Description:
Layout: H1 9-27, E1 42-50, E2 63-64, H2 65-70, E3 77-86, E4 141-143, E5 150-152, E6 167-170, H3 173-180, H4 191-198, H5 206-211, H6 214-220, E7 231-234, H7 245-253, H8 266-282, H9 285-291, H10 295-322, H11 328-348
Antiparallel strand pairs: 1-2, 1-3, 4-5, 6-7
Helix pairs in contact: 1-8
Amino acid sequence: MCEEHTVSLVDVLEEDEELEEEASAVLAGSDSDHCSYPQGYVKRQALYSCNTCTPKGAEAAGVCLACSYKCHEGHDLFELYTKRNFRCDCGNRKFTDLQCKLYPEKDDVNTLNKYSHNFSGVYCTCRRPYPDPDDQVEDEMIQCVLCEDWLHGRHLGREVPENNESQEMICVVRQVKEETGGRSNTDVAPEEQVDDVIKPSAKRTREEAELNCRLKELQAVNQKRERSGAVFWPSAWRSTLCSCNTCQERLSGAQLSFLLDESDTVVAYERKGQNNEQNQQGHDPLMSALDNLNRVQQLEIIHGYNDMKSELKDFLQRFAAEGKVVTPDDIRHFFEQQQSRKRRRVEAAPFY
């Protein structure tokens, strides 16, 4: 096997915790046991599209996390990451041969749901799947906060900044500039100007707020900038949008009211998921069981677990160092050895 194509088991073990954190950030913010349909159009949730039930050419449909587990197990699913303001379609009219096991009483169609080519398993302006077996170029996919499509960095029409993790990407610039009077990361107002220009103080009258409309200021100086390519704005850019009544009405008419909601961001959703995961860990059944044991028993179990974890890591490291593949028989032999050592320790223990 070529060394450049070899993945070390040690590397896998070290990356496992990071992968779990990423998964919990996406999934822990959604309910994995109950269909989200009764909640209506959920503010943001993890979604999937089932290629088995709604193949190419059929009406687009999306299912929630719980339905992907309970109703579509073993199906060919497209992971959509998260979408905003969506109601679960599982088992409605679009699914001719499937009834939702978790919440079968659904309307024929969810009229307010929005669908895109993502629901067919393709992304970006190039309309390619992800991962793409025919694409040999290493390139990250970035989600637009407006259309929520995922785009290749090389197809954004501009160079991707190095610190893009802390920014939100918008692939359609003109719509945001004209509808909201927002600013890019190169011309964000200083903190001392935010209250005076962008966010009118609550003490001011409605008329005064309208006079300080940021969008009107831009229009007065003909500052509708035509730009090509996507923009990356700092995570707090939403707080700089004008929220006067006129701008709120314009945002509502363009179905962009969510831009004034800072909790709409994927970062806020992931933070919620991480908090949920931590709370669940705080109620771990194993820890509850340990609470019912005395101090000596607790220490014995904890030390035994840590010893087994350390021995398993050492066991896998030997295979990695020798470039060998770990088989089910190897794993079975490892645990048989563990049981054998445990029996010897018990038999060797003195009897009082």
